[in-house]
Amino acid sequence: MERGQPVVTGIAISFIGYTSTFAAVLAGLRAVGAAPAEATSGLVALCASLGLVSLVLSRRYRMPITAAWSTPGAAVLVSAGVVEGGWPAAVGGFLLAGALVALTGLWPRLGALVASIPAPIAQAMLAGVLLALCLMPVKGLASHPWQVAPILLTWVVVTVTAPRWAIPAAFGATVVVVCVLAVRGDGLHGPWLPSLTLTTPELSWAAIAGIALPLYVVTMAAQNVPGVAIMSSFGYHVPWRATMGVTGLGSMLAAPFGGHAVNLAAISAALPASPQAHPDPARRWLSSQAFGVTYLGIAAGTTALLSFLAVAPAEVIGTVAGLGLLGTLVHALTSAVAGPGGPHPPGEQTASVVTFLVAASGTTLAGVSSAFWALVAGLLMRRLLRPAVTSGP
Q1: HSE-up of 50 (CA within 13 Å, CB side)?
Q2: Residue 278 pairs with which residues in a beta bridge?
Q3: I need a surface site. Which of 125, 281, 341, 366 has the fewest CB within 10 A?
Q4: How far apart are CA 93 and CA 202, in angstroms?
Q5: Helix axes 86-106, 71-80, angle to 10 degrees
Q6: Mean pLDDT score of the chain, rounded to an integer?
Q7: CA-CA distances (angstroms) from residue 1 to 9, 66, 157, 271, 276?
Q8: Cα-to-chain-centroid distance, residue 81
Q9: Looking at the predicted structure, is the pLDDT value of residue 1 above 50?
Q10: How many CA atoms lie within 13 A of 112 on its CB side?
Q11: What is the mean pLDDT of residues 72-80?
C-alpha cells in the first residue's frame, strides 16, 4: 500500500483542487472579456501548464512541489472586469504578471518589495475581491432556486460530515443538476475535443495597473510565499530562484492561450508534503508526479466538461465557485484584522477595512480596477494612521 500511496494522494488532490476552483477561474476569465471558447482555452492551458511545472520541479529537485493556478488571481479578474483594450489587453496583463514572477526569482529586491506590503493590507484586498465570487451562491439561489438549492444542501451536509470532500460533493451535485437540465432541454451542444485559442497580447495602462500588478501581488502574497513556507514546515527547502523562474515561465506560456497565472500551491501543498503521502519524505515527490500527470489528463477533458456544464445557467456554476472560495475568504478576513498575537491596532484595522471596502466596491477609476485603488487607499490610510498603528490600543 505504501508504494502506491503517493500516486493515490497525487490523483486525489488534483481532482479536489480542480473541482473546488475551476469555476472561479472560468468566472474570472469571462469577467475580463474572454469569449466562451477563449475562457475554455485558458482553463485548458492552465491545466497543462501547471501539470508540466509540477512534473519538472518535483522530478528535478525530488521534492513534492506542486503547482496551481492562482485562485486569488481569478478573484482579481472578477473585480477588474473588462479593461481598456478588452480581452487582448487582459492577456497582456497575464503575460506581464508572469514575467514579474520570473523576474522575482532573478531579482530578490522585487520579491522584497512585495513582502514589504503589510500582510493585513494584502489580505484585506484579497478579501475584497473574493467577496463578489463568494456572493454567487446567494444570488444563484435567488435567481435559480430549484437548481441551486440541491447544491447548497449537499455542501452543508458534507461540510458537517466530511469537510474535505464538501466542494467535490457540491460539484457532484452540480453534475446531477446539469444532467437533469440536459434531459429536460434539447441535450448537449459544443466542442468535446481539447482546443487552444491563441490571442495576441496587448497592453494598456488599465491592464497594467488593474490586472497585471494586482494579479502579481496576490499571486506572490497569497500563493508563492505561503507555498514556500508550508513546504519548509515539512522540512523541504524549496529553491526560490528556480521555482519562481519555472512558474513564471509556465504563466507566460499559458498567457497567450488565456491562462492567467501559474504558481506554487499553497494550502493544497501540505498534503503531498505530509506523511499522508508517504512515511518516507524522500518518496513523497512521487505524489507530485502523479498530480502533474493527472492534470495533463484533466486538460484533455476540460473542453468536454465545460461543454457539458454550459447547459446550466452561469449562476449554477458560479455557486460552486463561491463555495470553493469561502475558506479563503475566512482566512483573508481574519488575517486582515488580527494576527497571531491578537487583534491588530485600531489604526491597522481601519486601514484594512478601507482596503477591503474599496476592493469590494468593484469601482473603476481612470479605467483602473478597484484592486489597485484598494492597495493605494489602504497603504495611504496606514501611513496617515501610523501613530495609531504603532502604538496600539
Answers
A1: 26
A2: none
A3: 341
A4: 8
A5: 140
A6: 88
A7: 12, 22, 31, 17, 12
A8: 16
A9: no
A10: 4
A11: 89
For cell 483573508, what's the residue? 332
* Grid cell in block for residue 187: 441535450
Instruction: Count CA atoms closer than 13 A to 329's CA, side-chain side.
Output: 17
Looking only at Cα atoms, what is the longest distance across the chain? 65
What secondary structure letter does DSSP report for 83? P
Instruction: For residue 159, give the C-alpha cell.
Output: 461540510
Closest by Cα among 18, 4, 5 to 302: 18
**Does residue 111 carry a pLDDT above 50?**
yes
The whole-angstrom separation of Cα 30 and Cα 32 is: 6
What stretches of the chain adopt beta strand conformation (E)? 67-69, 262-264, 338-339, 342-343
Residue identified by cell 520541479 is 57
User: How far apart, in Å, are the Cα atoms of 256 and each of 88, 98, 199, 250, 343?
Assistant: 9, 11, 5, 11, 43
* Mean pLDDT, rounded, for 362-380: 82
Q: Which of 272, 224, 217, 221 is nearest to 246 (CA)?
A: 224
Q: pLDDT of 321-350, one tens digit each?
A: 888 888 888 888 998 888 777 788 888 889
**What whole-number percentage of the chain has pLDDT above 90?**
46
